[in-house]
Amino acid sequence: MNARPVLLQATGLLPSLERRLDENYTVHRLPPPGTERDAFLAARAGEVEALVTSAGAGASAALIDALPRLRIISSFGVGLDTLDLDAAKRRGIPVGYTPDVLNDCVADQAFALLLAIARRIPEADRYVRAGSWTAQPAKSFALGRQVSGAKLGIVGLGRIGKTIARRAGGFDMEVRYHSRRAVEGVAWPHEPSLLELARWCDFLVVITAGGAETRHLVNAEVLDALGTKGYLVNVARGTVIDEAALVRALQEKRIAGAGLDVFEREPHVPPELFALENVVLAPHIASATVQTREAMAQRVLDNLSAFYAGQPLPSQAA
Ligand code: NDP
After folding, report:
1. D-isomer specific 2-hydroxyacid dehydrogenase catalytic domain spans which residues (predicted)?
2. How far away, in angstroms, is 80 Cα from ligand 1 center?
3. Ligand 1 closest atom vs CA 261
4. ipTM of the complex as predicted
5. Of 183, 197, 107, 194, which Cα lies nearest the Cα of 152?
6. CA of 100, closest atom in ligand 1
7. pTM metric for this prediction
8. N or C terminus of the chain with fewer C-beta within 10 Å?
9. How many CB atoms within 10 Å of residue 101?
10. Protein residue whose Cα sits closest to atom 30 of ligand 1
11. Multiple choice CATH, 6-101+291-308, 1.10.3720.10, 3.40.50.720, 3.40.50.1220, 3.40.50.880
12. Residue 73 DSSP class
């Protein structure tokens, strides 16, 4: 008889995490949606008591409801927009996730994108590689925008937003933020109106939660308030920005530029962006360093082992 808990892995994970899951659990990989998945669930759903997923893959109510013996969900990532917490709660299933361990890395990526777009780094790289640097100084290369001393507006001053605000201190930036509630115990001024924040700042960095409540929070009106000299950076979720409005604003140069780590329908990126010099694109990699991904993997394991030891989860979302 197999005494190890049966665990369902909903998505591909870091190889080191998959190895450690295999050492401690009987792991099944969830087939992609379709007949293979249906057949798998028909044969195995009743055995599964742990589900490991990611912020990208999530866990729908349909999947949770299809697993009658499910007792614990452990998710790799901090985004909760793809996890049906209500469905888990109805069944009393705790949901573990991996907050905090990625704050530094995501804040670093926010600054990497901010600097890349303001100082035209990818454009400069393309310019040099193309052999366009034919005279010294490089007069035909457009001037960038100074970051040090600029005004930074942060949308969402949560765990990562605060880390970004602290980074900004190193650049002597003036910081204000917008969120539904003012955060206690911080010196940065709260701006109750997102439009006012966009009008005030030089750089608007978006790091709110995703999901229905923040959908298209940054719309055409906010982009116009940011204006022709303002830059947008999004490391939150693609859904927080009205992507069609953003594409138009970039094409018409109604904002100065954007640095984007996330998109509305990943991995789809609007092809109109590919031809634009005023945007820097990244494939959702804000937490993608060896160190951070290992720390996230460890938290996924720690949440599971705490559950099986009858202890509170180190990081429980619901
Ligand atoms: P937190 O929960 O600590 O912070 C979320 C912030 O968003 C809070 O300040 C909250 O403030 C604000 N917020 C929520 N809803 C709204 C709203 N309707 N209007 C304005 N502000 C709002 O989360 P983290 O800082 O840990 O993470 C933030 C998000 O970053 C994650 O949810 C995830 O989606 C994204 N992320 C992206 C990564 C990437 O790879 N690009 C990696 C990691 C995270 P209040 O409730 O007061 O409004």
Report:
1. 38-316
2. 10
3. 41
4. 0.99
5. 197
6. 26
7. 0.97
8. N
9. 19
10. 236
11. 3.40.50.720
12. E
